[in-house]
Amino acid sequence: MESSAAAAPATQTCYRHPGRATAVSCSSCGRPICPECMTPTPVGMRCPECSRQRTQVRTLQSTSTEPRVTVGLIILCAVTFLATSGLSGGSGSLWNELFLDGPDVHLGHDYWRLVTAGFLHAGPLHILFNMYLLWILGQMLEPALGSARFALLYFTALLWGSFGALVVEPTTATVGASGAVFGLMGAAAVEMRARGINPLQTGIGALIILNLGLSFVLSNISVGGHIGGLVGGALVGAVYVVAERRGQPALAWAGGLALAAAAVAGALVAAGGTGL
Q: How confident is the model at residue 16 (pLDDT cuts 50, 70, 90)?
């Protein structure tokens, strides 16, 4: 597959906004488009007209790009929250078996905690905020990446969030989908940059800056988890961009899985460094 957004001369301007120079063209009709006119699709950026044409015809291929993984993740987080929060007879003992901390991973060999902690939440506001962001970002990324690659991105970012949390606070109990959500923001920013869009001029850039700022201001926030997830998601996003430009879909899978394995290895080393 070729790069989905064809490069255009820097002197070209958006066909809808003649005063805006752009180097990105619609992957369908080839007309130059500015960031405001770009619509992400599974085959690259499209202009508003071509994007509407794509969505008017629903085929088996188009329905496969519905954000099903996103919905499934939200449901799984909600069910886990109910089962562990004390609501509806939730179990506190189950919570104790699922949260992330270095001693349990290192001494207890509870390696599943690297993943399960990402489905626990400390309260209603915690889960509502994370699920809102997951829904917004999932609607943007899953149709463009495809459900399978989106799932790989999400879980790799989650693992990098666990890695970061154990590096910064290895003995502190950590929960939440924030690391994975930060990873989605990081991947979105990398994808935008690859398409010639400045993430800082979009809602994604503001979202990253705001949430990073809150990570350092608010108490009981896993700074390491947030930064780790952001880095992991950005790395996966970069691998996806390279794979697309080279026309090597297998590279996206190999790179994503390698990054997931690196996060697990790093997390185990960080957990082992607790000295307990």
A: confident
3-class state of residue 25 by DSSP: strand
Residues 6+ apart with CB under 8 A from 29: 47, 49, 50
Annotation says 106 is catalytic: no
State the pTM of this model.
Answer: 0.75
Residue 192, strand partner residues: none
From residue 166, alpha-carbon distances to 114, 127, 155, 179 in Å are 10, 21, 17, 12
**CA 168 to CA 183: how far, in whole Å?**
17
CA 53 – CA 241 distance, rounded (Å): 25
From 121, 147, 222, 226, active-site residue:
226
Query: Model confidence over 206-232: pLDDT tens digits?
Result: 788 887 787 777 777 888 999 999 999
Q: Which residues make beta-bridge pairs with 46?
A: 39
Residue that the structure tokens 């599943």 belong to = 112
Instruction: Examine the domain organization and report whether 56 and 112 are in the same domain.
Output: no
Please say if 178 is a catalytic residue: yes
* Domain ranges, residue 10: 1-63
| Bridge partners (DSSP) listed for residue 100 | 174
Which residue pairs from 127-134 have beta carbons closer than 8 angstroms and sit at least 24 positions apart in sequence? 127/77, 127/78, 127/81, 130/77, 130/176, 130/177, 130/178, 130/181, 131/74, 131/77, 131/78, 131/177, 133/181, 133/184, 133/185, 133/207, 134/70, 134/73, 134/74, 134/77, 134/177, 134/180, 134/181, 134/184
Residue among 28, 85, 162, 178 flagged as catalytic: 178
Q: How many domains does the chain have?
A: 2
Q: E strands, the chain, where?
A: 39-41, 44-46
Choose one of 33, 63, 93: the last residue of a domain: 63
β-pairing, 44-46 vs 39-41, is: antiparallel
For the chain, what is the largest distance between any 2 Cα atoms, rounded to a whole number of angstroms?
64
- Do 57 and 40 lie in one domain? The reply is yes
